[in-house]
Design brief:
The chain has 190 residues and is of the alpha/beta class. It contains eight helices and five strands; from the N terminus they run ααβββαβαβαααα. It has a five-stranded mixed sheet with strand order 3-2-1-4-5, sandwiched between helices.
């Protein structure tokens, strides 16, 4: 299937970049994580049940160790269009194969895919094939463990500081996402 996307007339001699895309939501509900406390004390973690969220679109390039992201108030086709345009503009010299799940905003008739991006859907119910899921796990583990935020501004502030920190660690992203089957892909135009 990858060979079908890498036609010479589409690639036109450009470097090929494989990206894995996904969306995540972050909010004021606590995600409990293991934590340490000296014996005989038991750790206590406050809990919050406020159902307020912000969404983040993300796409990781495992070979390059690069992360593109966009924070949004909602998740829909229009925001996906904005994210695709942002990624296209960030890598104008590349031809990108973006691998994503089957979310409704990825299949919409109103989806506008830039000329230098081709979309490829993962099989249904297979998040384990998408390394972007590991990026979300890493972000939640490092930036949001056992935290209760008084407002959405706190969540957004943590995202605005944590995402650039994660994106700046190219070697860490590569280690987290450059799985052997991804690194071994043949990305030559046929």
């Amino acid at each position: 299937m990858l060979a079908d996307l890498l036609k010479p007339e589409a690639v036109r001699g450009r470097p090929v970049r494989v990206m894995f895309q996904d969306e995540a939501r972050f909010g004021r509900m606590v995600r409990l994580r293991r934590c340490w406390a000296p014996a005989p004390l038991r750790p206590t973690v406050p809990n919050g049940y406020e159902r307020q969220f912000v969404y983040v679109y993300g796409a990781v390039s495992p070979r390059e160790g690069e992360l593109d992201w966009k924070r949004c108030a909602e998740m829909n086709t229009e925001r996906m269009n904005e994210f695709l345009a942002q990624v296209s503009q960030a890598h104008p010299e590349d031809f990108m194969v973006m691998i994503l799940d089957g979310a409704s905003s990825h299949k919409s008739r109103d989806l506008r895919v830039p000329e230098n991006i081709r979309l490829h859907r993962l099989p249904g119910y297979s998040p384990e094939l998408n390394p972007q899921e590991h990026v979300w796990d890493e972000l939640r583990e490092k930036e949001f463990p056992n935290r209760v935020f008084d407002s959405m501004e706190g969540v957004i502030g943590q995202l605005e500081s944590g995402l650039p920190r994660l994106a700046a660690n190219r070697e860490g992203l590569r280690s987290l996402t450059a799985w052997p089957w991804i690194v071994s892909l043949n990305l030559k135009a046929n």
